[in-house]
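anyone seen this seq b4? input:
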Amino acid sequence: MEIVGSMWLVVALATLGGFAFLKWVLKSVNPWVYESRLGDLKYSLPPGDMGWPLIGNMWSFLRAFRSDDPDSFMASFVSRFGRTGIYKAFMFGNPSVIVTLPETSRRVLNDDDAFKPGWPTSTVELIGKKSFIGIPFEEHKRLRRLTAAPVNGHEALNIYIPYIEKIVVSTLDKWAKKGKIEFLTELRKLTFRIIMYIFLSSENEEVMDALEREYTTLNYGVRAMAINIPGFAYHKALKARKNLVAAFQSVVSERRMQKKTTTHSTKKKDMLDALIDVKDEKGATLDDEEIIDIMLMYLNAGHESSGHTTMWAAVFLEQHPEFFKIAKEEQERILKKRPPTQKGLNLKEIREMEYLSKVIDETLRLITFSLMVFREAKTDVNISGYTVPKGWKALVWFRSIHLDPEIYPNPTEFVPDRWNDYNAKAGTFLPFGAGSRLCPGNDLAKLEISIFLHHFLLNYQLERLNPGSKINYLPHTRPQDNCVAIIRKNKPSQN
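predicted toks r here
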């Protein structure tokens, strides 16, 4: 019996040893493939773990972000390799370096000589090779210069306000009469309707609903692995992009034809008109592909980020009545100061909403709508004593910065007052990115959110029907039930 027991012990130990050896071999594949070719540079790589062959660290990334603790992914790097702020990994099919501290992030985002956009293939193919995320630095500067005024300019924002306010007021009233709604779903439809009107002067609800569904499919494929096989998110998203491009090409062609045949038009000039008419200093105009990719990018980003941020701001304010009260009182003061001849909000009033701006910034920090941004090293780059090899991706991990307790005490708590007399140091607050590739629609997004919250705070209450709903973190932070709620209209004051 002792001999048999010893034999089983030997077999068990041999099996465990075999598994350990196999794990060591598999864990050595990515370093061997990607580090061995670097020569002596491999000795100056950041600490880290390149995961398994082909999939790299994606399994542990997805497992963490599908759990209740998404930050366990980066926490595992910090616990194993220390708080270096820079780690090697294998992400989205590429050898990568993840940067998680303001200093390292600022370098990656601002050094255009050393880094270029490095978005995954799936993102570039879906958003567009001629959109801001897929073009070289000089072309990016040109497009940004041409589109800045029509999107974020003072005159443009003033023009958008009356329509945004009108649609927000009517939509809130409709929701209050409707009863139970999916608050996030309805907000995404609202923000899509707003941005469709700004870009295309379109108010056809049936068409907008169809296009919004295509955008939802597109968005789920943007961060997915580029697997073009039926059933996978990327395959579905490619079909959605094809449908969207066809729809927009039809609109662009029709608009160009109208401009050729009509010498004078009294029709309001929208964003598409501006994109067709704009010329650079050499007289060059945008071609159809550039216009369509720019619209695809803005429409996708504009309604997704604004809708999610607005929902979370409303949820956080309802969870914290003390902050709701302060924010509401500010909006009431704005109304009291308004001249009797003025109808509706103006840009000056919106820029006076100091406390509401803090609410929005705190929401942007806490939910971190875009958890990372992708760059690629154009040459071997030294950061904090470590090398980012040419061709490797650099992932700026916004989430780690925004939830760093050394930067923001009690970082998982919603505290708008933390922004009182606080000037965020460079690289510590990055909701719209930074550097030359700062999100070009950031002012428009904050304008939409501010107008909605102005009317919501003054006249409505949010009652969530499932406040304990599980939170999903991919592709963006949201309640699994899309925030099922009732919007209740306040009773008129008896004064």
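The domain at 113-369+405-453 is CATH 1.10.630.10 (Cytochrome p450). The chain has a mean pLDDT of 87. kinda curious what u guys think
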